[in-house]
């Protein structure tokens, strides 16, 4: 009780002194006003993020909130340990693709610094915000134009690093639990349901932003011989080896799913047919290099059919076209990549 009375007396004495010096009183009022504004910002940020159940919608909400205080072209997030990432870009057309490509390269760099960087070809600047003591583990990237107020950015760094941590932990933990029920138990890859959902999302993004999008079907060659000759246990080992090898080559933004016994599918956002085909050819080489082979039979390989989505293409027809490309690869000698008719 005595301590509380003393605090009140001290506060009263401070206010009395401020009243005697109008300049100090104005400074004190300004300080409280700035604190109040910051609390309102924090409340609004948590209100927006608290409504979001997944990383994608959370990063979109964060970008919208941040734009009011710091104009930017792109916000990107990556958690290396969980292999989760998301890029939110407000640009459209060719510039959008260039920014997304630049962000993808920056996000996956082995080491980054929190200093200001320049993208000379795009006439943009960028800055990393490291959210984890281990720089490679978790990072936030902002890309903004040359006119943006860097001092304004600096003022937001401490606030964002402190307030974003909790919501991100929550949504990533939720996605981890949700993800467990949506993965293939043998390989750890996502299942067909996840693939279908992602495909709908990526087509919607392609329609909205105009970026290229490819879909590939993969079917292992000579897997039946491995299963029949070496046994199902060795067949399971082979499937896990192939899945691990393929997973190690894709980007965080890609989606690799196991859709059948020895069948896989892959969604490649921001990828045109030429780039997609070259990537698939590397996958063919990777699978063959595993040197999985049943005695007296050819080495395990993979046949791949790939096609690119285009405006006006119905989803069912796109799936049929991609399946036809896979059939052509199997019929043409196996362990090869084929595109759909008319896409050569």
Structure commentary:
- The structure is a single chain.
- The protein has 344 residues and is of the alpha+beta class.
- It has two domains: 51-180, Dynein light chain 2a, cytoplasmic (Beta-Lactamase); 192-339, 2-Layer Sandwich (Alpha-Beta Plaits), CATH 3.30.70.
- 53% of the residues lie in helices and 18% in strands.
- The chain contains ten helices and ten strands.
- The protein has helices spanning 2-20, 22-50, 55-67, 93-107, 150-180, 192-209, 223-230, 232-247, 273-289, 315-331; strands at residues 74-79, 84-89, 117-119, 124-130, 138-145, 213-221, 255-258, 263-269, 301-308, 337-339.
- The strands form two sheets. It has a five-stranded antiparallel beta sheet, sandwiched between helices. It has a five-stranded mixed beta sheet with strand order 7-8-6-9-10, sandwiched between helices.
